[in-house]
Amino acid sequence: MADKLVMMLLTISPETPHLCGTPFFQAASAAAMDVEVEIYFASSAVRLLRKGVADSIYPSDNRIKSVYQFMQDAADLGVKFYACGGALDANGVTDADLIPECTGVAGGASYISRVMDDDWRAISY
User: Fold this and answer.
1) pLDDT at site 27
2) Measured between alpha carbons, how far is residue 60 from residues 12, 22, 25, 39, 64 in Å?
3) Which residue numbers in the chain have pLDDT < 50?
4) Exposed, middle or buried, 122 (CB in 10 Å: 0-12/13-18/19+)?
5) Separation of alpha carbons 85 and 78, rounded Å
6) Which of 12, 89, 106, 110 gives the lowest tally of CB atoms within 10 Å of its CB?
């Protein structure tokens, strides 16, 4: 079984909160199974890394747990979050705006190197 997972968040955004919990729940589940997990935030998904955004949206109507709480669960288990630099610029997000759980900035080449590596498995949202 592979022990490394890379995830691309491309089609989720704060405007679709009902889609935002699953990637982080699955990332936390994989990390709990001792899988190394990296999540790359591209396009409008990068706005989830802006302070105050993910903690104000909920993936379900019961509002028990915010998207940010799902993100924190994953980060607490060692999941790394990478923001696309181009997406940050395109969405007006600065380094100062980023939540503390954001590991850093990494672009397409970093993601593609993971996808092409036989030791990694990939999921896109």
Assistant:
1) 98
2) 15, 11, 13, 22, 8
3) none
4) middle
5) 22
6) 89
CATH number at 28 reads 3.40.1260.10
The label of the residue with tokens 């993601």 reads: 111
CA torsion 3→8→12→14, rounded to 10°?
90
Count: domains in the chain: 1
Please enumerate in sequence order all residues whose Cβ is within 8 A of that of 4, keeping only pairs 6 or more positions apart, or say none: 35, 36, 37, 114, 117, 119, 120, 121
Q: Which domain holds residue 104?
A: 4-124
Prediction pTM value: 0.96
